[in-house]
Amino acid sequence: MNVVVLLAGIVDPKWPLQALHLGSGGVAAGDDKLPRILSPFDEAALETALQLRDADPAVKIAAFLLGGPQSEQLLRVVAAFRLDGVFGVDYRPTHRWDVSQLARTLKNALDATEARPELVLIGREFGDCDDGALPPYLAEAWGWRFAGLTQEAARQDKDLKFLRGRGEVNEWLTLPAPAVASVTNDKSNRLRHPLIKNVMAAKRATFTVISPPDPAAPPRLSPSAFKVLGPTLRQGSGCRILAGPVESQVAELVGFLQPWRDVP
Amino acid sequence: MTPIARADSLKLLVLVPVDDTESLDPFSAVAVAAVIAKRSSAAVHAVLLGRAPHEGHGREALLAGADKVWLVSHPQLCLPVQTDQLVLAFAQTLSELGALGETATTLVLLPAGAIGEELAARLAARVNGVALGRCSEIELTDAGIVAHRPAFGGRAQVALAPAGGALFAAVRGPKRSQDTIGCAASSDALPHRIELKTVLPRTEVSYHETGQRQARLEGAKIVVSGGRGMAGPEGFALLQQLADCLGGALGGSLPSVDAGWVPVARQIGQSGKYIAPEIYIAVGISGASQHLAGIGLNTRILAINRDAEADIFRIAEIGVVADWQDVLPALIDALRASEHPSRTTVV
Predict the structure, then answer these.
(1) By 3-state DSSP, what share of chain B in percent is helix, strand and coil, each rounded to 5?
(2) pTM greater than 0.90
(3) Do residues B13 and B37 make contact, with C-beta atoms less than 8 angstroms apart?
(4) Which of A137, A144, A157, A248 best tests the B interface by mutation, with the highest count of B CBs <10 A?
(5) Which candidate, B42, B53, B31, B70, places its Cα nearest to that of B183?
(6) CB spacing of A168 vs B212 below 8 angstroms
(7) How many Å apart are CA B303 and CA A135, to the nearest integer?
(8) Which of A192, B20, B41, B306 is deepest in the core (most CB within 10 A)?
(9) What 3-state class would DSSP assign to B293?
(10) Could you tell me if B273 and B263 are in contact, meaning their C-beta atoms sit under 8 angstroms apart?
(11) How high is the ipTM of this complex?
(12) Tens-digit pLDDT profile for residues A189-221
């Protein structure tokens, strides 16, 4: 089975975003200069693919990382998992907010490499500019079946099975291939550490970067304003920090919570 | 880029999958549309789809601010809901109603949540529309529709201007009160009924009980939540005891889910559930914006964290700067004692 993992990368959350600002057509300067890492959802998607390969060594995995030549460092991180192909996908900054353009760019990248996956795994949120719309949009635009917010994937004969946790109940969905599955973080899909020898090999690897097709269609969604936020200001005039011994603080907490305990 | 069409060429549609039991308030999307409608001459059309939507659903939509309501039924719709079916059924309904294409811009809203957000994106793709994502606010300005949503993990806010056409967004409205949105008095207020008959696909789904019997996050008045600072599952066991004492539900931040201390179904935040309890007790949670994005703005926050500089104390109402290992057992004991003064408790 051929599996493709679509990876976006995110700006390292430890780095401040103050350098970001709205350039022409989209967030520009500073964005590509900030260090990038795989998001928890990128990692979950990659680990899910690796687990499929663990179960069947005949599974082939190709990863496509959004970001172009400046993402070389992150490409090496991905390559350290000894995949069958690791590709960079360049894209137009003006398209980063338009999921229809991104879906087209990603499909073009798969076609350019003649990747014919039966399964595409993608994190539930694709990068810093997506809040979850891209995976289902992409599946529908490609005419593929979609399983959202999955935690595990498995193959059963010609079908694909996906696990979703729903609290009291777990669901196993069965879909025919080809399918797109968005993957959410779970303890079962925490990304493993790569072998050191593969990390060293990845340092010497070269990567193909696929460019977007020309001519470019104009974006249908563009940012008109962008603002880096501080801590959220909510209602209230500030936090009352309790003082005194723990016992007295606990007594205050009990008093504070009492009205909600009295309500059935 | 051509600005969007004027307000008077805007159509407002709200699609509500009434059988989605995970949505906190499915009709809040109607309320959001009603606010937008006040700035334009557009009417709010609510399409309520389910196996058997009833008059009560119609009344809810009208009370939330719909001007026209369609109750669309399809007997083949599965319960629990299957999004493949809902996508086809909504698409067919939009086609039968001729809902798209009449005006320069049609704004289609769905309730935020896993189902609504997936439907919004898939329907946008199906009709070659624009997916706006999960929006914290949608406004109608003189320049047209502007959709606001978080970006960069909730650390930034972006305003997006679409080029027109069919726009699809998932939205979460404020808590609704009946005295702010009224019911339309015209005869158009009576719901119209549509029964769909197309054959719907059926996804093979098997269900397995997890054995978890904890209170649901959705609708909980009190939520007790832990973060990275809990440092392990033992801390979450104490949090569960605290939640049980208070009749509340247990939640966790993304790092605590990643660590396997709490299941992903209990993850709260931008990439998890959105909740709006009356009280949120945040233990060992730093207060990152991605997490806070999952908590209602009117929720009162009580924070316990040993780091006095933690961001959570900027937005909490009450703060305890202490180690949870010192506070939680004492708090649980005190709560139990106040309920049963003669009872001796061993934690």
Answers:
(1) 30, 30, 40
(2) no
(3) no
(4) A137
(5) B31
(6) yes
(7) 35
(8) B20
(9) coil
(10) no
(11) 0.92
(12) 999 999 999 999 999 999 999 987 766 678 899
